[in-house]
Specification:
Low-confidence stretches: 1-5
Mean pLDDT: 86
Number of helices: 11
Strand content: 15-25%
Strand order of the largest sheet: 4-7-8-9-10
CATH class of the largest domain: Alpha Beta
Shape: globular
Structural class: alpha+beta
């Protein structure tokens, strides 16, 4: 029994939720329910309320009609640190962690959309028990990779996918990079991004195949991108998939079913 109302015995699922908040910076209760509570919304609400009361989790200030947006409190960071979980991540000072939680309104919508996609895929996985999520990281810093667009290019570049998903069926696996488009980049930039992925794929020896899942805000943007991507020679080892955000949120199984396991 807790010694006082502010104390709470952390369970393994609590630690996974705190770790998830450390990686993603923020998520809604609906996201947490799908990812960490098997879709049980009421169970998620009750447990998160206790984590908030105990000081492990905080809620971002919001208007009455906006969803509750969670982020990690300093006590939650301490809990992860005490369990040596933070050694798995790039070293960040307390100040850097605090600043990282200060998400601008412009960035907030994009990151919540990424989390909505992640939650939808976790929900879909429960309907396909033969497929397992090995990992699904949405921290761009952890997903970044370096390379050159062309073998003759001397200009280095860095890519930070919105998500890196690894799934498995039996002993076969598939790697899926998630790119959530905001219509702020030209089609030429998207083509350049695909060529960089191809260069990255060619530089690896352990990855047999990879999929790049582009998610667009509208059908028009998606069609224009499809036309642009059609000019890129396709290789079996690297696949390009496209969808609108609404399509992926409403039919997340389409991504799983289209995955070609190696």
């Amino acid at each position: 029994m807790p010694k006082h109302p502010g104390s709470l015995q952390l369970q393994p699922r609590d630690i996974e939720l705190l770790r998830g908040l450390f990686e993603s910076r923020l998520m809604t209760i609906a996201n947490a329910a799908e990812i960490h509570f098997g879709g049980r919304r009421e169970a998620a609400k009750k447990r998160i309320q206790r984590l908030k009361a105990a000081g492990f989790v905080k809620e971002r200030q919001r208007r009455p009609y906006e969803p509750s947006i969670l982020h990690l409190a300093s006590k939650g960071v301490t809990a992860l640190s005490e369990r040596s979980i933070l050694v798995e991540y790039p070293p960040l000072s307390r100040l850097a962690i605090k600043r990282r939680n200060q998400v601008s309104e412009r960035t907030l919508r994009h990151e919540l959309q990424v989390m909505d996609v992640k939650a939808a895929l976790y929900r879909a996985m429960r309907a396909t028990p033969e497929v397992r999520i090995l990992s699904f990281c949405t921290w761009p810093l952890l997903n970044e990779f370096y390379g050159s667009e062309n073998s003759w290019s001397q200009l280095p570049w860095i890519a930070r996918p919105d998500g890196l998903l690894r799934i498995s069926r039996d002993t076969r696996t598939q790697t899926i990079f998630l790119e959530l488009d905001r219509s702020t980049e030209s089609l030429g930039t998207l083509l350049s991004k695909v060529r960089r992925y191809a260069s990255y794929k060619n530089s690896l020896t352990g990855m047999k195949s990879m999929t790049i899942q582009f998610v667009f805000p509208s059908e028009t943007r998606r069609r224009n991108a499809d036309l642009a991507f059609a000019s890129i020679p396709r290789k079996r080892a690297m696949r390009i998939r496209t969808s609108t955000l609404n399509e992926l949120l409403n039919q997340p199984l389409s991504l799983i079913k289209s995955a070609e396991f190696e």
